[in-house]
Amino acid sequence: MQKLVEVIAKSLVDYPDEVRVKEVVDGDSIVFELSVAQSDMGKIIGKQGKTVKALRTVVNAAAVKDNKKISVEII
User: Which of 8, 16, 32, 33 could hold 22 in an S-S bridge, CB 3.0 to 4.6 Å?
Assistant: First the structure.
């Protein structure tokens, strides 16, 4: 799942080498902390947050088969 977030994020930004995804497990939920270059922040968030919302939707859809609660946070 972490690789999925990383691949999607790298395809959206200008500086893919600066994309970092950290997995934090908290009980039965998993949080992916996504960090990108400051200049790429707008590309990850998108207009009115639509891009990050779509990213979260894809990750949640992939997590359904594993019965896990997953969230993506941008740092």
Answer: 33
